[in-house]
Amino acid sequence: MHTSAMINCQSFFETYAKSFSNENVRVIEIGSQNINGSLRTLSPQGFEYIGVDFVAGEGVDVILDDPYKLPFDSGSADIVLSSSCFEHSEMFWIIFLEILRVLKSKGLFYLNVPSNGPFHRYPVDCWRFYPDSGRALVAWAKRNGINAALLESYTSVQVEDVWNDFVAVFARDERFVSEFPRRILDDKEDMTNGLLYHKEEFIRRERLPEDQKKLLAISELQST
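User: That's the sequence. What structure does it adopt?
Assistant: Structure tokens below.
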């Protein structure tokens, strides 16, 4: 788990966990194998935490037989997390709908997925996500009869490595958006292309990815 992924998920829990005041909050993480760090360590004390993955390993409570089918009842989870996983799913849009199925009406899906970075197969590496990806997933949900909403999304800056993460927080049912008054973007400054629910304009809009901006800066320096 690279550093920025841990920082982003910590910000998610700090921002949204207090909105779940009831007992027995259930968190499901997809892609939970502990590789250089685990999101489980960030979950608030007292939350039930279930890690699922495609293979056995540290941090894995449930092994999936089908990568597009979650073995949980509909409406049984308060929070679903997925970090550094969707890029390895050949058809991530299918598991996205499955995630929404298992969420309660007042449920949240936290997604962290690369927006750049090296080719890394596990067992395949298929996708990178750009600033409009969250809105596209909501459009896909609504096309399938699910009234989801994008609460916020952004691209985080590189921290100690090459990764820029696309981060998005989805509400399972748009009717419950008011239950979550705070946003990560209320305080976060080290990001680009932020989007907020019902806001059309990007916050700190950047046309070039961070990698390209750095290369351009080096090129301009060398030409002087």
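The chain has one domain: 3-223.
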